[in-house]
Amino acid sequence: SIENAATNAIIVNNTIYMQQATGITQGIKNYAGYTLIRANNVTVYGPCVGIDWNGEAIANTIGIVTLYGDNVRILNNNIKVFQTNGTTAEAYGTTDGIDVRGNRVSVLNNNIEVNAQVYTYGINVMGEKLKIQNNTINLKSERYVAGIQAGSDYSGIYNCKNVNITNNKITGIANKTSKNASDAVAYGIISSSMGGSMCEKIKIDNNTVDLKSNVGYGMEIYTCINTNITKNNIKVDAIYATGIGVSKSINNNIKLNNITTHGNSLKTIGAVSEDIEPANAGINLDSGSHYTNITNNKIYSDDTNNTAKTVNVKANNNDILIANNIV
C-alpha cells in the first residue's frame, strides 16, 4: 500500500495489490493537500467490518482514501475492491471504492468496482467545492449499494456545499440473502446531511443510473438546500422502485430527466430503515420538500400491482410546481 503525508505529492502509475482477512486494507491513503493521485491500478481484498467511529470513522477496506487534505485530485485510476473470499461480513460491514474528506477535491475519470456482502459504496465524499465527474462505478452486494454519496461530517469538520456530480455512470445490484434480516437496498446517488449540517448547492446532472434490487432509489435527496437534478437517465428495477426521492429538502429543481421504474408490490419485503418509505414512483416528494419544481421530465413507472405513480407529492409540502412533464 501507499500512505502519504507530504504536501504536493504525486502518486502516479503505481500497481497495488493487497489481500488480507483482517485489519486495515487501504490501497492508497493520503493525509496531505495539493496531492495528485493519477493512473494507478489498485486491487484490494479485505474484510467487510464495521466502522470504528471512535477512530478515523472510515471503512477498513477502501481502494483510495484522502483525509484532511484540500486541493486533491484523484484522476484516471482503476480501482477494484472486494471482500476477501471466505470471510464473514459484520452486520454493519462497510467497503468503499474512493473515500474523500476534504475541500476542493476532484474525483474524475476513475473506473471503480466494489463487491462485498453488506454496505458497499463507490464514491463517498464530505467537503466543499467538490467535483465528481466522468466516473464509471459498478457495485454488487447482498444488502446495500450506493454509487455516489455526498454528505456532511457529523462532527462539523466538513460540510457538504457546492458539490457537482456530473456525467457518471453507475450500475448497482443488491440481492438479499437469507442471512440478512433487513432487505436489500440500492441507491444511485445520495446527498444527505448524514447527521451534520444540511447539504447546500448540490448539482446532479447528466448521470446514468441503472439499479436492480428489492428496494431501489435512483437518487435520494435528504436534508438539502438548493439542489438541481437535470438531464439524468435513471432506471430502477425492484419490488419497490423510486426514480428520485426527496425528503426534508428545500428549493429543488428537477428537470429534463428520463426516469423509468419497474416494480412489483405483489411481493413482500423485509425491514427497511429509510426516511423515504419504499414506493413505486418516478418522483416521490416526502414531507418538508418545499419550493420544488418538477418540469420537463419524461417518466415511466409501472407496478405489477398497479399502484405506481409517476409523480407522488405527500402532505406538508409547500409551493410545488409540476409542469410540462411526459408521464
Q: How would you describe the overall organization of this protein?
A:
The chain is an all-beta fold and 327 residues long. It contains no helices and 32 strands. The strands form three sheets. The chain has an eleven-stranded parallel β-sheet with strand order 1-4-7-10-13-16-19-22-25-28-31, with no helix packed on it. It is globular, with a radius of gyration of 19 Å. The model has no long low-confidence stretch (mean pLDDT 94).
Give a topology summary.
Layout: E1 2-4, E2 10-12, E3 15-19, E4 25-30, E5 36-38, E6 41-46, E7 61-67, E8 73-75, E9 78-83, E10 94-101, E11 106-108, E12 111-115, E13 119-126, E14 128-133, E15 136-141, E16 144-151, E17 161-166, E18 169-174, E19 185-192, E20 199-205, E21 208-212, E22 215-222, E23 224-230, E24 233-237, E25 240-247, E26 250-255, E27 258-263, E28 281-285, E29 292-295, E30 298-303, E31 309-313, E32 320-323
Parallel strand pairs: 1-4, 2-5, 3-6, 4-7, 5-8, 6-9, 7-10, 8-11, 9-12, 10-13, 11-14, 12-15, 13-16, 14-17, 15-18, 16-19, 17-20, 18-21, 19-22, 20-23, 21-24, 22-25, 23-26, 24-27, 25-28, 26-29, 27-30, 28-31, 29-32
